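Consider the following assembly input.
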Amino acid sequence: MRLSRYFLPVLKEVPADVQIVSHQLMLRAGMIRQEAAGIYAWLPLGLRVLKKIEQIVREEMDRAGAVELLMPTLQLADLWRESGRYEAYGDEMLRIKDRHGRDLLYGPTAEEVVTDIFRASVKSYKDLPLNLYNIQWKFRDERRPRFGVMRGREFLMKDAYSFDLNEADARRSYNRMFIAYLNTFARMGLKAVPMKADTGPIGGDLSHEFIVLAETGESQVFCHKDLVEMGAPGPGVDFDGDLQPLVDQRTALYAATEEMHDEAAFGAVPADKQLSARGIEVGHIFYFGEKYSKPMKANVAGPDGTSAPVHMGSYGVGVSRLLGAIIEASHDDNGIIWPDAVAPYDLGIINLKSGDAACDAACEKAYAAARAAGKAVLYDDRDERAGAKFATMDLIGIPRQIVVGPKSIAEGNVEVKVRATGERSVASLDDVLAGLS
RNA sequence: CGGAGUGUGGCUCAGUCUGGUAGAGCACCGCGUUCGGGACGCGGGGGUCGCAGGUUCGAAUCCUGCCACUCCGACCA
């Protein structure tokens, strides 16, 4: 993409009361624009990152055996009356009437809809286990939206729902999501720690939140320090095999959110391993058994021929929130430092003197070569001052930048800059381009 | 939902207390000088001051109501 033809409304100033660094940087980098409290338009650069994060989530869900579908944003109130949640959910649910006066709602989650889909088609244990997920916009009318996309009212969520014949099988499904989440967050460069969590209005008795530690996090959390650096099992995991040992390894050490905190148990952790910190919740998984299948009559026949409510779990990832979490975890005074896997562009090309024949020619050559090598390239061909170009590339966090200026290109050289380290080196343009593929 | 604030060109803000025909910086347009880490000079365009009502000769400014947004707290798959 040529920057001269792109839409990248970077800002030099943001409102004084925007305190969270990720929110500031997303506004300054021209990624989002607020349209109403907790409601944002995703500008081109922000959308690119959102899509990359979404795709990583999708790939890891698929790898774990989940099946993607897409459920509507608008749901029928009648379904929620069946589960008993229509009245219980409160003012956080955005309620709407259609022209016929029928009650609709903008979905804050989709247990009811997915259960309705499931019960219409699945009647036998032979079709289990099943895990259906979608990545869809949700709306929760938060009393106090804040921190940009970290707590918006409208947000993009991946929500998965598992269906199993019994609790033992359901726990295996739960474990698959547990491991898939570790892998998902690790791919984005995040250290997410699974912690015992409260189940809240969704209900159930087994639940973990995945927490990214950050000073600006909204949750107070307590855990054993070793969990932070434990890492993820990686893509080689056999999701058809027994995942319990991997899960046990990560649940044996103490880790809990404030609601589930047990001071005595925490005190048993060696003092130098006790970590009390703030965290951002990026994922939340639940096993809740028959909570929805029973009232909604989602029954399946077992091997003995008798029908019983299916056992369910649900598994959420805050896709749009992840942008904020990643920026909180990875930035410096100059701007965002995107991990390679989620960077909006792989490579930046800075033409220090647009209009100079040698610079233009070298940049065009680099631009063509990089695209031919399959790289996503952002080429700053604007008639702008060098400082503005450097500042923009750093602000939006392009991982590697090729800098073409009249002095060095006269000798066939360019500067290569690494955003994360600030390291700069000089090399011949041809060598740099040869190294792209 | 309780408390506290803020709404003035595209952005960040001053002006409001003490009423008198709307400002700055940035951004934008033109010309010129510059140009290897967010340049400078000169000129220019752009705002019914959140909305409605009231007071007044006169309202961005005072009064009333409403709306929106923000911050602290409570709340929060």
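Residues 7 and 44 of chain A are 7 Å apart (CA to CA). Ask yourself how this observation constrains the way the partners meet.
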